[in-house]
Design brief:
The chain has 320 residues and is of the alpha/beta class. 36% of the residues lie in helices and 16% in strands. The chain is built from twelve helices and twelve strands. Strand 6, helix 7 and strand 7 form a beta-alpha-beta unit. Bound molecules: (2R)-2,3-dihydroxypropanoic acid. (2R)-2,3-dihydroxypropanoic acid binds next to loops.
Length: 320
C-alpha cells in the first residue's frame, strides 16, 4: 500500500477519503509542526507528501523520503518553502492550491485595510480598557477609504480580487506588476504605475506578490520612505517582502500611519515584538485563506492531486 505523509491535520473529509481509496495515510497529529528530525524520519518511504508553508521542503527532505517519493502536494498557493529545482531534478511532481483561496485572502486584506485605517482594534482595546467615557470630535480619527488611492503591488488573481473590493469602496486603483494587464485594467478601472510612482501616489498600499529573490525586501527603507505621509500598508503576501526594521522606522517616524499585517518577518511573531507595541499595527496570524470552505477545498485539491500522480494521471494543479 502506498504511503502518504501529511504534516498537519486538514479540515474536511478528504484525508479519510484518501485512506478509503487504498492509501496508507499518516497525519502528524499535533498542532505544532513536526520537528525537523521527526519530519525526516516520518517522510521515509513515503510515495506522497502533503506539506505546509512552514515545512522546509528541500533536497534533504526529498532524499530522506527516498526514491519512492513521487509527489509533493503543498497545502498553499505559495511555494517559497519548496525547492522546486531539487524536486524537478529528482523527477518529483510538485502541486499546490492556486485559485481557491483568492477571495478569502482578498477579503482578509480588505478587512486589515479597513481595520488599520479606521483604528478598529485600537478602538476595541480602548473600550476594553474602560477608557470610553464620552463621545468626542477628535477621538480616534482615522484615514478614509472613499475617494482614496490604493496601490496594489502584484496584480495576479489575489491582487485583482482585492482591487475589485477596493472599487466597490470607490477607491482609485493603481497597480504595479511585472507585466501590464490590459484586460484587468479595463475591468477594474485600474491604472498601471511603476513601483516608485505607485508608492508616492497611494494612500493605501496592499502587497500581493509571491516571495522570490526579486521580491525579498521589495519594500526596504528607501521604498517605504517614498510612501505618502499618513499612508497605510497592508501585507497578506509574505512577511519577507517587507524589511521589518524599515517598517518599524516608517511607523515610528513617518511616513506610515498604520499597517495591517497577516504575514510578518519573523513568523510567527513573538508577543514581545516591537511591531506589536505600535498602537496602529494590526496583526493576524497568517489566516488569509482560513475560511472553512476554502480550507476544505484546499484539502480536496491536494488529495486529488496526490492520487492523480500516484495513479499515473496528470495533476490538476502542478507547480511547474
Ligand atoms: C498560501 O496559500 O500561500 C497562503 O499563504 C496560505 O494559505
Amino acid at each position: 500500500m502506498k504511503r502518504v505523509f501529511v504534516t498537519r491535520k486538514l479540515p474536511g473529509n478528504s484525508l479519510s477519503e484518501l485512506s478509503a481509496t487504498g492509501y496508507q495515510v499518516e497525519v502528524w497529529p499535533e498542532f505544532l509542526p513536526p520537528p525537523r528530525e521527526r519530519l525526516l524520519g516520518l517522510a521515509k518511504g513515503a510515495a506522497g507528501l502533503v506539506t505546509m508553508l512552514e515545512d522546509r521542503v528541500d533536497a534533504e527532505l526529498m532524499d530522506a523520503a527516498g526514491p519512492g517519493l513521487k509527489v509533493i502536494s503543498q497545502y498553499a498557493v505559495g511555494l517559497d518553502n519548496v525547492d522546486l529545482e531539487a524536486a524537478r531534478a529528482r523527477g518529483i511532481v510538485v502541486t499546490h492550491t492556486p485559485g481557491v483561496l483568492t477571495n478569502a485572502t482578498a477579503d482578509l486584506a480588505f478587512a486589515l485595510l479597513t481595520a488599520a485605517a479606521r483604528r478598529v482594534v485600537e478602538g476595541h482595546d480602548y473600550v476594553r480598557r474602560g477608557e470610553w467615557r464620552t463621545w468626542h470630535p477628535e477621538l480616534l480619527l482615522g484615514s478614509e477609504l472613499y475617494g482614496a488611492t490604493v496601490g496594489v503591488i502584484g496584480f495576479g488573481r489575489i491582487g485583482q480580487a482585492f482591487a475589485r473590493r477596493a472599487r466597490g469602496f470607490d477607491m482609485k486603483i493603481l497597480y504595479s506588476s511585472r507585466h501590464r494587464k490590459p484586460r484587468a485594467e479595463a475591468e477594474l478601472g485600474a491604472e498601471y504605475a511603476e513601483l516608485d510612482d505607485l508608492l508616492t501616489r497611494s494612500d493605501f498600499v496592499s502587497l500581493h506578490t509571491p516571495l522570490t529573490p526579486e521580491t525579498l525586501h521589495l519594500l526596504n527603507a528607501e521604498r517605504l520612505g517614498r510612501m505618502k505621509e499618513g499612508s497605510v500598508l497592508v501585507n497578506t503576501a509574505r512577511g519577507k517582502v517587507v524589511d521589518t526594521n524599515a517598517l518599524l522606522e516608517a511607523l515610528a517616524h513617518g511616513p506610515l500611519f498604520a499597517a495591517g499585517l497577516d504575514v510578518t518577518d519573523p513568523e510567527p511573531l513573538p508577543a514581545d515584538h516591537p511591531l506589536l507595541q505600535h498602537p496602529r499595527v494590526v496583526v493576524t496570524p497568517h489566516i488569509g485563506s482560513a475560511g472553512r470552505s476554502t480550507r476544505e477545498k484546499m484539502a480536496e485539491m491536494v488529495c486529488a492531486d496526490v492520487r492523480a500522480v500516484l495513479e499515473g494521471r496528470a495533476p490538476r494543479y502542478p507547480a511547474f
